[in-house]
């Protein structure tokens, strides 16, 4: 590392010029990335997905229904009395919106499409699968229903699960605004940490890292699909990660300069020590994200490929461009020098001494606190958020309220389509069999497709959005699975079951892969067996605590309504737990590496475990807390988005980062290191040879010396 940075400093003009060209290329091409990103939600090989593909081939439309039109006639009359006018509204959708399949009361005669008072009716509009996130037909469907209903004196609405998921009438800030808000929060923290114009340097590094990552992801799209979600992660997670890494290196550079080192020598030492920790941290985060490729789900795989570039590019920029900037202009922008780095933080040094003195109480108290947070995780459900936790106003919400008041359950938002081949027999008979399944409100046969196959459209009484509510899907499947020509069941409930099989059946393998690879990386970084093992286990405990807190807050609704106006979701959207785990596991390990790498350095210099704890935490405590605050501000900005899933994702990561940087890294880690003594630093000779690092034999604990900070 030292030789590497000295070569950089000898050619700093070329390095700076190279990064300037990359920065400009990223700025010029960033807008093109959006058109190259994937909106692939496929689940190859899963029964619900394969049935949906067969439906698309037969009818040209996907399942579940993209739109649910609702029509209400004036008080004093009923839908049946106004059937001619009401049916004309649904017919208008068929005539004016290309490629859709409409199922309604007039075309089926099933009274399950009517509310109890007879004044309102709903329909199902199946549309071709959209190429992007939103259906391009939404405006046309709304115009066909709402305008035509108004012209007849009726009230028309269009609702659906996706419409409710889009949020209420008030839209949140754009991603650019969210990034700027996160950047302002980061600037405030950096100004406090450095108390000089040096605070601008990490922001400059972050800007280069973000645009470079956009450029790298653009290149990746040539050979692989990359999810549209990655662009948001680059903007906000990339901002926090790049600043965090810069913060560690710049702080060490200031420390070395305060000790009297020449500027370039201070840069070399900072990169050799803090830079090595940054490299280990970045690789760990990248491994956590790359492990997503284990899942047979294109959405998660593309997040893994694209997401791993965020920390890797940030590491590359911090280890090459940042040393050049510090060498060229560091001393000139480090004004005014209000905060000195010649000694460790007095507050964090006193805290570390207290933890060492009360290590048993600190360890037991922290573990008990985390155990309380973990308790609710046993009730974690996956699937999709309940409709009650989505939009709280707007036309889509009003339509659901009309149906609910009329005795129609929310199952209308998650209908099923059961597909049969021609040899299955009479479609009406099969629809009657399915209609007899408890919990089914409507089961009507669709007209045969061109190849003779046909679908039965099924509306359950209650929505099928999580693994606790998809029993009706299994019941419907069992009722007809022995029929010759039965293909399968498609829809939201079937999709939830598909994700359960594809994602969570494979999750133990992902967990094992991440844990083993991270352990091996950290063994080499810390030259220890016990420290990496403890780091991996504590990371798993920390992530479990976040899931428990998210379950209690979001799924069960203890506070989500008061703070965000969102009722309990009842479940975590199927992709959220996996993505939260991958990011949080990697980001939390950053702080473990920052703290323990400095403790290892101090122990090698002094031979005192307790002294290493006090000196290491005294030097890194303020940095880790500041880094956590920077990431927290980034996620807090992201939580202002109107979509519930984004709020859950952002708050889980934000709170998880703060929890990890305080209770785990500032309290539990030093307490356990103190309890383990010299066994923290043991690395057997045979393993050291394999990893090509010096061995660290276990030795009896030395006599306890007075704890001092360096």
Automatic annotation (TrEMBL):
The keyword Transcription does not apply. The chain crosses the membrane at residues 175-194, 201-223, 229-250, 271-297, 309-330, 360-380, 506-523, 535-554, 574-597, 623-643, 663-683. It is found in: Cell membrane. PROSITE patterns: SSD (PS50156). It is a multi-pass membrane protein. Residues 198-328 form the SSD domain. It holds the Pfam family MMPL. It comes from the Bacteria. Keywords: Cell membrane, Membrane, Transmembrane, Transmembrane helix. This is MMPL family transporter. It comes from Motilibacter deserti.
């Amino acid at each position: 590392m030292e030789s590497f940075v000295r070569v950089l400093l000898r050619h700093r003009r070329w390095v700076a010029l190279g990064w300037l060209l990359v920065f400009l290329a990223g700025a010029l091409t960033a807008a093109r990335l959006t058109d190259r990103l994937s909106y692939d939600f496929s689940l190859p090989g899963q029964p619900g997905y394969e049935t949906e593909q067969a439906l698309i081939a037969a009818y040209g439309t996907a399942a579940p229904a993209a739109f649910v039109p609702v029509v209400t006639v004036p008080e004093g009359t009923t839908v049946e009395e106004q059937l001619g006018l009401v049916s004309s509204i649904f017919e208008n959708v068929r005539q004016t919106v290309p490629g859709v399949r409409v199922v309604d009361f007039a075309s089926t005669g099933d009274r399950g499409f009517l509310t109890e008072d007879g004044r309102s009716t709903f329909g199902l509009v199946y549309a071709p699968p959209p190429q992007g996130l939103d259906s391009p037909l939404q405006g046309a469907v709304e115009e066909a229903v709402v305008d035509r209903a108004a012209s007849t004196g009726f009230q028309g609405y269009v609702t659906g699960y996706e419409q409710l998921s889009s949020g209420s009438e008030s839209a949140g800030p754009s991603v650019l605004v969210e990034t700027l808000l996160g950047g302002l929060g980061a600037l405030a923290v950096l100004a406090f940490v450095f108390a000089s114009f040096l605070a601008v340097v990490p922001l400059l590094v972050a800007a280069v890292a973000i645009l470079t990552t956009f450029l790298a992801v653009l290149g990746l799209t040539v050979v692989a699909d990359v999810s549209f979600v990655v662009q948001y992660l680059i903007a906000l997670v990339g901002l926090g990660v790049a600043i965090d890494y810069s913060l560690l290196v710049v702080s060490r550079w200031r420390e070395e300069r305060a000790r009297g080192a020449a500027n370039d020598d201070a840069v070399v030492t900072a990169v050799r020590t803090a830079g090595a920790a940054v490299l280990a941290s970045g690789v760990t985060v990248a491994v956590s994200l790359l492990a997503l490729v284990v899942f047979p789900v294109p959405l998660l795989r593309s997040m893994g490929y694209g997401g791993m570039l965020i920390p890797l590019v940030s590491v590359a920029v911090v280890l090459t461009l940042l040393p050049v900037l510090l060498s060229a202009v560091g001393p000139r922008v480090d004004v005014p020098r209000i905060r000195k780095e010649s000694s460790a933080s007095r507050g964090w040094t006193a805290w570390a001494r207290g933890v060492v003195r009360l290590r048993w109480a600190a360890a037991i108290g922290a573990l008990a606190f985390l155990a309380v947070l973990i308790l609710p995780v046993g009730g974690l459900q996956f699937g999709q958020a309940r409709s009650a936790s989505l939009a709280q106003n707007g036309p889509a919400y009003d339509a659901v309220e009309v149906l609910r008041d009329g005795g129609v359950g929310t199952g209308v938002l998650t209908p099923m389509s059961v597909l049969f081949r021609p040899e299955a027999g009479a479609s009406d008979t099969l629809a009657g069999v399915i209609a007899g399944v408890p919990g089914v409100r409507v089961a009507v046969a669709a007209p045969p497709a061109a190849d003779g196959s046909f679908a039965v459209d099924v509306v359950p009484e209650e929505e099928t959005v999580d693994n606790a509510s998809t029993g009706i899907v299994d019941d419907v499947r069992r009722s007809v699975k022995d029929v010759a020509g039965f293909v399968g069941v498609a829809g939201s409930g079937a999709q939830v079951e598909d994700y359960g099989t594809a994602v969570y059946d494979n999750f133990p393998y992902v967990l094992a892969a991440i844990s083993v690879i991270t352990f091996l990386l950290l063994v080499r970084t810390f030259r220890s067996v016990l420290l990496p093992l403890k780091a991996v286990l504590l990371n798993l405990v920390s992530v479990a605590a976040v899931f428990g807190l998210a379950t209690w807050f979001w799924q069960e609704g203890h506070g989500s309504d008061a703070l965000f106006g969102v009722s309990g979701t009842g479940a975590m959207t199927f992709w959220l737990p996996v993505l939260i785990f991958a990011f949080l596991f990697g980001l939390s390990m950053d702080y473990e590496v920052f703290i323990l790498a400095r403790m290892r350095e101090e122990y090698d210099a002094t031979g005192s475990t307790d002294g290493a704890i006090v000196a290491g935490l005294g030097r890194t405590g303020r940095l880790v807390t500041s880094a956590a605050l920077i990431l927290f501000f980034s996620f807090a900005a992201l939580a202002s988005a109107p979509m519930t899933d984004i709020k859950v994702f952002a708050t889980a990561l934000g709170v998880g980062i703060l929890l990890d940087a305080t209770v785990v890294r500032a309290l539990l880690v030093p307490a356990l290191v103190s309890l383990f003594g010299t066994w923290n630093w043991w690395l057997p000779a045979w393993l050291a040879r394999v990893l090509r690092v010096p061995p660290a034999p276990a030795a009896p604990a030395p006599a306890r010396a007075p704890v001092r900070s360096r």
